[in-house]
Amino acid sequence: MSLFHTDSFQKRKWLAPALCLLLLIFLIPLLALAYLVNDLNQPMEIKGESILFMVESGTSLTRVANELESMDLIDNSGSMTLYARIQRTAASIQSGEYELTAGMTSMDFLRKMLAGDTYQYRITLIEGWTLEQALNEIWSDSNIVRELNSNSGELVADSLNLVEESVEGLLYPDTYFFTRGTTDREILTRAYERMKEVLTEAWESRLGTLPYNDAYDALIMASIIEKESAEESERGHIAGVFVRRLELGMRLQSDPTVIYGMGDNFDGDIRREDLLEETAYNTYRINGLPPTPIALAGIDSINASLNPLPSDYLYFVSRGNGTHYFSSTLQEHNDAVSRFQLESQ
User: Fold this and answer.
1) How far apart, in whole angstroms, are the C-alpha atoms of residue 15 and residue 13?
2) Residues 42-60, mean pLDDT to the nearest whole number
3) What single string gives the DSSP state of each residue in 197-211?
4) Among 17, 49, 206, 268, which residue has the least CB neighbours within 10 Å?
5) Euclidean distance between CA atoms 126 and 171, whole angstroms
């Protein structure tokens, strides 16, 4: 046989092992990665519907994975750590509190941490609440950090660096989502900014001429409407009564403003002497609107204050069932008061 044939045979002799070795070099990492991915896509051992897991600031992924394993949520902490290192994402996890739900995999949780998809708590501020009630609700939530020491509208406004003298009525009633460690200032600021957005939009779309100097006056009116009736269909009529009284120079004579002005002295009943008490909020004694809103007004009351229904009504009285009877004359109103008072006895 020739020398050329011998060299060719030698090359073919080593070619197959070299190809096999090269294949193994590429195949082993792929198989290892496939194993990691498969392991990470196994459901975690979560008992119940869900649990909350806290990743403290500065915590490494290795520590997170080890803690998951120690809690018997995963079998192999190394899979999560090694996979993240291969992907060069181990240092990119974000701190916070995460919800682990039934059926969730380690891969799902890793993606949550990389996206910072932390658990959201919720708090709801209700229409008709005062600032004091809103703050009590906020402060009762252990997930919110308290920084404020006063429920005074003036002091809270100053603490939040607001241009308004008081924050009373300037919080929009809604449900707010937040993460653990959010402060009361942050919740209040969000509610304030939301109210500013809603009020500005409503004010800019108002129709006709109204007896308000600015949007703040409309908000004061909206807060009174909010406290006068929970019946949505009546709010436009109540707004109409109060707007016409302002235009005619009549006092509003709204009981909710008297109650607000009484503060802690209100025991559930309004007496004649209460109506004669000189307070900044007693609309039986003052002309025009009180100095601030008296409660959190919802969008329906805000819209009503800016879109009062036309009629000749100037009075209304409670029927005792959550609705009101509207009158055009004082005599008709007095008759209605007598009738509904007798029916309530």
Assistant:
1) 6
2) 93
3) HHHHHHHHT--S--S
4) 268
5) 10
